[in-house]
Design brief:
The chain has 200 residues and is of the alpha/beta class. It has a single domain, classed as Rossmann fold. β3, α3 and β4 form a beta-alpha-beta unit. It is globular, with a radius of gyration of 17 Å. 28% of the residues are buried.
């Protein structure tokens, strides 16, 4: 099943894909690429004939790292269903780490939440896990992700503040470029192109 052999650099992103989450998704993707890794998200290839579950399993299998944001699993208004995809995909990723041998036993996971300890009410099995919270603050999300990579062996990483300033520069150029050339908001290629031109 494995198609991408860059396991050591791949980072599976498990998060909501809606307009409300874009303010966090953009800096998360930027930080991952800025630090030299490759984000893998379900939106990277769109094939109506491919079952989403199979695609998710492939991305998990191809990625040493997994970032799982559980901040949207709680219903926000009356009549809205709980969003269980994120916790389901987290379970798949942890299961891959536990039940596979060889390189998969080295998988690493970052679990993000909006508020400290809130996740325990929904997933009590994670009570002893080291979960980070971002408070829906893009800069805090950058800091949590950068620090997590450092904790997992990344050396000579720029500070979270440096990444944040570079991200704000990127966003300015991103909107100008989109207006003139029609880039899609989810275009990872533009992030890579910008970093390649602007980061020495």
């Amino acid at each position: 099943m494995t198609k991408n052999n860059d396991f050591e650099k791949n980072v599976f992103i498990n998060c909501p894909f809606d307009d409300e989450y874009l303010s966090l998704l953009r800096p998360i993707l930027f930080t991952i690429i800025y630090l030299g890794f490759q984000p893998r998200i379900a939106l990277e290839r769109l094939d109506s004939g491919e079952p989403r579950f199979i695609k998710i399993c492939e991305l998990i299998e191809e990625s040493k790292y997994g970032i799982h944001d559980l901040s949207r699993i709680k219903a926000r208004k009356k009549g809205e269903y709980f969003r269980l995809n994120m916790s389901f995909e987290l379970g798949l990723d942890i299961g891959c780490r536990i039940f596979r041998n060889e390189k998969w036993a080295q998988k690493r996971h970052l679990i993000l939440e909006e508020e400290k300890y809130r996740y325990q009410a929904a997933i009590s099995d994670l009570s002893n896990s080291d979960i980070k919270y971002h408070k829906n603050d893009p800069m805090r999300a950058i800091r949590q992700i950068r620090n997590w990579f450092v904790e997992n062996g990344l050396r000579n990483a720029p500070s979270a503040t440096t990444i944040w300033y570079r991200f704000t520069d990127f966003i300015t150029d991103f909107h100008k470029e989109r207006e003139s050339e029609g880039f899609e908001e989810e275009d990872l290629g533009f992030i890579k192109k910008w970093i390649g031109k602007n980061v020495s």
